[in-house]
Amino acid sequence: MRALRVHELGEPKDVLRLEEVPVPEPGPGQVVVRVRATAVNFPDALLCRGLYQEKPPLPFSPGVELCGEVAALGEGVTTVAEGDRVIGAPVLPLGSFAEYAPMDIGRVFPAPPALTDEEAAALFIGYQTGWFALHRRAALREGETVLVHAAAGGVGSAAIQLAKAAGARVIGVVGGRAKAEYARRLGADIVVDRHTEDFVTVVKEATDGRGADVIYDPVGGDSYTRSTKCVAFEGRILIIGFASGTIPTPGLNHALIKNYSLLGLHWGLYNKRDPALVAECHEELTALADRGLIKPAVSETLSLEELPDGVQRLADGSTVGRLVATPLAGH
């Protein structure tokens, strides 16, 4: 099979090499799937650079979520059958930037029938993250105002749709005109281009000075610092990640004075501590997709040959919408 592999760490466009490698065999409690589609995520770039929390041994294939067709069953697997269309996370170091990938059965879920392969491939991480953040951690209520940073990115775009599905008003922060238009198409009520506008001022004006009830922050750095200036009384700031590369050091006295909460989300821990809740979330997301309330917005579909450039562009912040690759296309 063909697979993109990393032999030395560096920038994605420099280190991702297309190679012929053996098709993996499923271990006990695993399946191997034909990768119909694989979404590109920021962790893929971090894996190439050696900066992700998980550091697979070299050489490895990135790719942390997929939509695939079950091709082989490992010992003890009885909940899926060959030919089933599924989504979920592959087992590194054999990620989904390949024609076949292994998956632990606990990370395998039925692909929502309402979504195409490309859309389904982009559902698992971004929408699970958004659902756990907004509902499990922040207890989002209908009518509240949600401020979403990096609203045109993978987790940000999912957060817009999920917040709207919950009856919230959404203010999206993006960088650039094309990303602003994309966030509007996703359903954001107000979009702020941080290159030309101050989101703090916009939020205060839009809420009559009250501020945002929930702030969804996958960026960190200055985005977090300025968010503390426009969070509502008893508001919640969700710490999703640090795409800016800067981890804030918050003054906790400010949270005390303004009565707001800082809520961390490490979604991966739920896969280890409460797999049943992850399965429940998947059922909720499937129902929302069936009702047309959520749908990953795929902007580009790439081949394996084009994927290194796509991962690099995502890492550089120049992409709009979700990038998906179809490894088996044409083969």
TrEMBL record:
GO terms for molecular function: oxidoreductase activity; zinc ion binding. It comes from the Bacteria. Transmembrane segments: none annotated. InterPro entries: ADH-like_C, ADH-like_N, ER, GroES-like_sf, NAD(P)-bd_dom_sf, Quin_OxRdtase/zeta-crystal_CS, Zn-ADH-like_protein. It holds the Pfam family ADH_N. PANTHER family: QUINONE OXIDOREDUCTASE-LIKE PROTEIN 2 (PTHR43677:SF4), SHORT-CHAIN DEHYDROGENASE/REDUCTASE (PTHR43677). This is NADPH:quinone oxidoreductase family protein. It comes from Thermobifida halotolerans.
